[in-house]
Write the structure tokens for this entry.
Amino acid sequence: MSNLEQLVEKARQSTLFTAPVLGPDLERFLSEQAGPIQRLARQAVDTIVEHVYWIGSGNSWVNLYSGKYLLDRFTDLTSDCMPSYEFVWRNPLRLNRKAWTFLASFSGATEDTVVALRHAKSQKSKTIALVNQADSLMGQEADVTLPYQSKALYILPLAAAYLFSLEIARLQNQPEAEMILAGLYELPALLSRQYVEEESRAKALAERFADEDMFYVLASGPLYGLGYKFALTVFMENMRVNACFMHATEFRHGPVEMIERHKPTIVALKGTDESREGVERVCKVAEDNGARLIVYDLAEYGNIHPLLAPFALMIPLQWFAVYSSLLRSISDLDERVVMGRGVLASGKGFTWP
């Protein structure tokens, strides 16, 4: 066994590398938590909740982005998705007993999000915590706790946001909600296949781009949150390279001019929803002007509902990140240079960042 193969075997056990458990853990989560989450949605409708806040930091912020996206698209229930401290500083006027606040944190002790939870409670908002363990700080303080008991810290809170938002849509007689929910229950099998099938392609890509120290990540529509996640909380945090995330169509509004003097490597996430044509246009302009492209295309993975794209592109991207990290001599995927060392967090009981 080569040294790289040994490192990959070690990586399979790391907290960062969630792909090995995504299929079975998503299946278990849907079995255990779909009922409670759908009952929450019914309660929200019955009690006439007027606004929903989706709150978190880093990965645990953008995995809730889809909650707002789905509520906006299929329901008349208004919502906002924002980083934890921004939520506190903004102190929205609509944050009151008629508003519900969903807060995500893998550790359940993220400084920013604990502060946000306490702020929401002070304004009489109902708080729902999405945490790994129920006995975490946030798990104990929230009005409702939805523990997912898995290292799948992006996909399972994402599934919770889908379940809640789509159940609201179903209760408001939106027929497409049923179709998306049915597709959600088919995803565990896809994720288990991808874990096996995507490794070799990712290894080849990682070897091809092993010397790259700057990635531009472009995504739009339902893939916006996944693009943000990989640019900032994977490529920068785990691969420790420079990365920039932007809405794909925004590349045309200024950034494209740098192509005259810099030929970037662009990671483009391409869905099958309405945003596809815009992403394709940007990719063509970039490639025609000398950029190198890595394209992850939902269309390659069969007849998956366009709004389930973040689930389907997660493992291909993660395998690429794992091999890219190992090829850059980062052998411990869970080690951090600054985060998790008590340097960035301030306050009793806070463990992250």
Summary: The two ends are 36 Å apart (CA to CA). The mean pLDDT is 95. The chain is about 50% helix and 15% strand. Residues 198-327 form a domain with the Rossmann fold fold (CATH 3.40.50.10490).
